[in-house]
Amino acid sequence: AMGRSSGNALRWAYLCAVTLALCTAAPALGQETPDDAAGREYFERGRAAFANADYESALVYFRHAYRLSRRGELQYNIGVAADRLQREEEALEAFEHYLEESREPTREEEVRERIAALQQSIAERKATELALEEATIRYRVAQEQSADTSRLRRSTLIGASALAAVGVAGV
User: Fold this and answer.
1) How far is CA 75 from the centre of its chain?
2) DSSP readout, 110-147?
3) Which one-letter DSSP state was computed for residue 56?
4) Segment 95-108, tens digit of pLDDT
């Protein structure tokens, strides 16, 4: 319980820092191409949606802005929005792309820490899912064995009763 509450506290602190960063500083988009200009509009919509806690819309807008501009810095915003929606695999992928595609990732340390936390969380979730699947299989096998044993007992009783009836009638 202690590890979980400290993990929640760290996640809360991280999310507060990210919100502050997103609301105060847009990624440096540098010189704009025509696609950048169109992408900038979607980025601004994404930022406004994010500020209003509409993370689903923010994610859509950030992805569209990225498709238009191909600016690696936008992968950070995509990652944060996906993270807020608890889409850990999507967030992880976006953060990894941010580090790969950004010329000078200004949030490299923060993103590397979040990548490590996401990798751990995904691994823990997958281990839990696997354990649940294994437990479900064991449960079903036990249920089937119990049903088979019950059918065997019933057929044995019916067979023994029939033999007894034949034996009594035959006397």
Assistant:
1) 17
2) HHHHHHHHHHHHHHHHHHHHHHHHHHHHHHHHHHHHHH
3) H
4) 999 999 988 889 99
Structure-block tokens of residue 107: 């949030």
Q: Which two tokens stand for residue 166?
A: 């034949």
Q: Which two tokens stand for residue 71?
A: 């600016």
Alpha carbons 144 and 162: distance in angstroms, whole number: 27
- Residue 118: which of 88, 94, 76 has the closest Cα? 88
**In angstroms, rounded to a whole number, what is the distance separating the alpha carbons of residues 39 and 70?**
9
Number of neighbouring beta carbons within 10 Å of residue 77: 28
Of 90, 99, 38, 88, nearest in space to 66 by CA: 38
Report the C-alpha gap between 58 and 34 in whole angstroms: 22
Summarize the confidence of residues 17-24 as an average pLDDT: 48
Q: What angle do CA 102, 104, 105 make, to 5 degrees?
A: 65
